[in-house]
From TrEMBL:
Cofactor, how bound (note): Binds 1 zinc ion.
Family: In the C-terminal section; belongs to the HTP reductase family. In the N-terminal section; belongs to the cytidine and deoxycytidylate deaminase family.
Pathway: Cofactor biosynthesis; riboflavin biosynthesis; 5-amino-6-(D-ribitylamino)uracil from GTP: step 2/4; Cofactor biosynthesis; riboflavin biosynthesis; 5-amino-6-(D-ribitylamino)uracil from GTP: step 3/4
Protein known as: Riboflavin biosynthesis protein RibD
Length: 366
């Protein structure tokens, strides 16, 4: 009974850490989102979260807020305290110096450079409990974990399709498939991601903004992949200033358009070969955690085939448009047999207004 109460209390404190961590949603790359809470005699006496790379870690803010009340206290932190000199000094040293009696950790840090904090704390005589609300902690930082393990940003493929599996009519008309509520969810998703990628076709046909459309919300970097650089001179992506745009192309493509884009403040980078994996590698080097693929079916199929997509978010509208030539969200994967189908794992369904959102993860393949 007492144990159950303690577990409930620990869980609720860790949930509070996750709530705090999320205040920096979309702002921490390449770092994780982390929250910390200092508890003395069952009362919260200090809270903190990590606001972004280069700034102090969550534990440091929580200790500062708790001040002298940190001595003998328990600190809850959603990620193992770091044990390294990175952009900031090791949190384990700050915890030891503050005299905390106990540290409750949500999940072990997958980053080998920062790991070892738990052992260091224990050898300093501090009690450490590991794994409270671990699943929720891992979920919040799924992109960070993926980045560390695979040296690539976490890829999300998002699309909106009709009930009969089309992303546009056969004449190419696609505004709007889903209702406003679902589109708002997409805008929030953009604010949480570091980059949004489309191909040249999407720019030519849809002329999208790819912003979060929210006052004060941050915007992802808008990335266009185009081999030919046969792109319109006046697309919204280069005529609107609320978000930066990066055009990735191949060596030597359309020098005139390159010059024009550069004049408009668009960054143009020529890669040796313009493939989804090369693009993800480039975005990894920029320090990105999560990348949203909002492209058409051909690029989506290539991105899936190259392992650049980990998670699918499919918005499904209760509409039927028919049309043999109407495009579908994923192009040719070369599969012939039903047994070859990629079957999503850990799926979740929810309704958003009249539409449905199905989320799930592609089976791990690398
Ligand atoms: N606790 C915690 C982190 N813990 C660890 O520190 C690493 C970044 O170190 P640094 O370069 O010094 O900021 C990060 O990759 C993660 O492994 N990081 C964070 O950004 N925030 C935090 O609250
Ligand atoms: Zn730290």
């Amino acid at each position: 009974m007492i144990d159950d109460k303690m577990n409930d209390f620990d869980s609720s404190m860790m949930r509070r850490c996750l709530e705090l961590a999320q205040k920096a949603l979309g702002k921490t790359a390449p770092n994780p989102m982390v929250g910390a809470v200092v508890v003395q005699n069952g009362q919260i006496v200090g809270e903190g979260y990590h606001p972004g790379a280069g700034q102090p870690h969550a534990e440091v803010f929580a200790l500062r807020a708790a001040d002298h009340l940190a001595r003998g206290a328990t600190i809850y932190v959603s990620l193992e305290p770091c044990n390294h000199y990175g952009k900031t000094p090791p949190c384990v040293e700050a915890l030891i110096a503050a005299g905390v009696a106990k540290v409750v950790v949500g999940m072990v840090d997958p980053n080998p450079q920062a790991a070892g904090g738990i052992e260091k704390l224990r050898s300093a005589g501090i009690e450490v409990v590991v794994g409270v609300e671990e699943e929720a902690c891992r979920q919040l930082n799924e992109a960070f974990v993926h980045r560390i393990l695979y040296k690539r940003p976490f890829g999300i493929l998002k699309y909106a399709m009709t009930l009969d599996g089309k992303i546009a009519t056969s004449s190419g008309h696609s505004s709007w498939i889903t209702d406003l509520a679902a589109r708002n969810v997409v805008h929030q998703l953009r604010a949480a991601c570091d980059a949004v990628i489309v191909g040249g076709n999407t720019v030519r046909h849809d002329n999208p903004h790819l912003t979060s459309h929210q006052v004060e919300a941050r915007n992802p970097l808008r990335v266009v992949m185009s081999r030919s650089l046969e792109l319109p001179e006046n697309a919204y992506l280069w005529e609107t200033e609320e978000a930066a745009t990066l055009v990735l192309t191949q060596v030597g493509a359309n020098p005139d358009l390159q010059k024009l884009l550069l004049r408009k403040g668009v960054n143009v980078v020529e890669l040796d070969s313009l493939t989804p994996d090369k693009v993800m590698s480039y975005l990894y080097d920029l320090g990105f955690l999560s990348v949203l693929w909002e492209c058409g079916g051909i690029l989506a199929a290539n991105a899936i085939a190259e392992g650049a997509v980990q998670k699918i978010m499919a918005f499904i509208a209760p509409k039927i448009i028919g049309g043999d030539g109407a495009p579908s969200p994923v192009g040719n994967l070369g599969f012939q047999q039903m047994t070859e189908a990629l079957t999503l794992e850990r799926i979740n369904w929810q309704t958003i207004g009249p539409d449905c959102l199905m989320e799930g993860y592609l089976p791990l393949r690398r």
